Amino acid sequence: xxAAVLHDFNKLVLEDVPVPxxxxxxxxxxxxxxxFCATDYKAIKGIRRNVRFPCIVGHEPSGxxxxxxxxxxxxxxxxxxxxxxxGSCGVCRHCRxxxxxxxxxxxxxxxxxPDDVRPGAFAEYMKTNAASLFAKPTSLSFDAAALTEPLSGxxxxxxxxxxxxxxxxxxxxxxxxxxxxxxxxARAAGAGRLIAVDxxxxxxxxxxxxxxxxxxxxxxxxxxxxxxxxxxxxxDLVIEAAGPISAVTLxxxxxxxxxxxxxxxITTHETFELDGGRTHFLEGRMDASFGTTPRAMQAAIxxxxxxxVNAGEIISHRFPLxxxxxxxxxxxxxxxxxxxxxx
Length: 343
What we know:
Layout: E1 2-8, E2 11-16, E3 26-36, H1 38-45, E4 61-68, E5 80-83, E6 86-87, H2 93-96, E7 107-109, E8 116-118, E9 125-129, E10 133-135, H3 142-145, H4 148-161, E11 170-173, H5 177-188, E12 194-197, H6 201-209, E13 214-216, H7 223-230, E14 237-240, H8 245-253, E15 260-263, H9 276-282, E16 285-288, H10 294-305, E17 315-320, H11 324-331, E18 338-342
Parallel strand pairs: 7-8, 11-12, 11-14, 12-13, 14-15, 15-16, 17-18
Antiparallel strand pairs: 1-2, 3-4, 3-9, 3-18, 4-5, 5-10, 6-7
Helix pairs in contact: 4-5, 4-10
């Protein structure tokens, strides 16, 4: 099969590699679509260093079951599926408390986090556990279905962890692909004033088209003042979906008494300062969210299946696997949203 194999940072090679064979409880999926996540790009370019070579990245796939291994009962060849990019033991304390993404025995396909990282979906076929599959609703395209994992992360951060409520005034810092999904979840959940903050005019334009009530350019003047001009009493919820430490700093500045804030986008080990007394008397609540869980995946599928979120609206580019290097170039450009690879 054709696969994009990463041999070193900035050394991504299209190669013919063996099609994987499923073992006990495993399936092989013929990949139809795979989202190109920023963490994949960071691995390819060496921005993210926790990579073991050679590897196949790509962790947002949908496809068709091509072969099932012994013991698989709930899926058969030809089933259209969505792949959760992780698997867990199912029996440890974390798994049984609903926090499968904390499982010490977990694995990832094409992503990062656990020690056990397996070949991902920038390939024609991918092997995973049957327990990591979800049935794809027939109403969803494969491209939209490939956005289940990032949408599940947005739902988990905005709804499950930060407990957004009807009519909350919400600020989303950074409206690239994941920020747009956070914004769309907040819109579907009944946000009141929904402010997108991003230095990119391209990003702000798309945020307004996809449900933001206001957009703020933080590079033009005082971003805190601009937000408070729109929401004089301050935001109920701030979601940091940008990544740079400057976005986290702005999030801290945006707080008022009772503000909930979610450190969602930053994954690099950088520091920011908190005034302990002010944080105490503001009595806000900080959350953070990473990864996904089966509950969040199921919620994301339902959001798309019922039409509450049309995740496919954030797709800006599509490339066949043979043009993966063109996709890498686009990932490095500012004027793009979600990039999809179609093996």
